[in-house]
Amino acid sequence: MFKLVCGAGNEDAESVKRLVFVYASAGCSIFDLSARKEILDAAKEGAKSAGREDVQYCVSIGIKGDKHIKKARINNSKCIKCSNCYNNCPNEAVYSSIIIDEKKCIGCGICEKKCPTGAITMEEKDVNYREILPYMVQNGVDIIELHIMGHDTVDLAKKWQVINDCNPKLASICIDRENFGNREVLNRINSMISVRVPYTTIIQADGVPMSGGADDYKTTLQAVAMAEVIQNAELPVYIMLSGGTNSKTAELAKLCGINYWGIAIGSWARKIVKPYVLQDDFWENKETQDKAIKIAKKLIESCK
User: Fold this and answer.
1) Domain that holds residue 38
2) Angle formed by the axes of helices 13-26 and 267-277, to 10°?
3) Mean pLDDT of the chain
4) Domain shared by 222 and 133, yes or no
């Protein structure tokens, strides 16, 4: 099972529409989206243009403290116009005039790390999840995912309760070990799945979130290692690998004996088709579309 991660923070409807069109045409089964009506509508348009009515949609939200709900902000009084943020943003979210396009910012934090003066900070931007999640399920969303890489257990409990009240076909828990040890990871997962029917939950083992900028074994190593932690616990869940995933993930997972249900790829999947989906004449240029689809298809094949 291949899942394209369009980005939990990606609110650029046109970008999502093009990505879904390319990967749906290439055979992708699941699309992970920002939990916003206009993004779901854009994804549906992309799938329709690809002639696909059989795809599934997953929408993602995060608890307080999780990077997936953060957006970059620039303090102009500290900015020295060095263009580090512009040159290093993987999602074209920074303009040359040093302005952040909030809709394109996915919260990866690369610009903050590259800023020499501390002019960039990451600030949280959440959605009205009590209102939007029921709408999503009523309008064709099959999976709701909660990113839980934060320490606010009160916010976690509130959002997990709303997700369960919405009764999606599957609920997904996305977690990594950046802030927790293995024991705390498993304790948190066990507590959350205790209220769910067995095998109605996906654990998205996020190796290193938003780190899939290269296509090698080292980049995907932590995703496989994280999946092994979940597998060894023998939980009644489906395992999906994520976070640094690429065309090497399936091969490495099989060598390590990981019985995964699916592989979710975001950064790498978006990067390899980026030159094509950014073209102004994308919708009119079938040659451009075909090139992007061919590349996407090769990545999907590598994940089987």
Assistant:
1) 2-64+127-302
2) 100
3) 94
4) yes
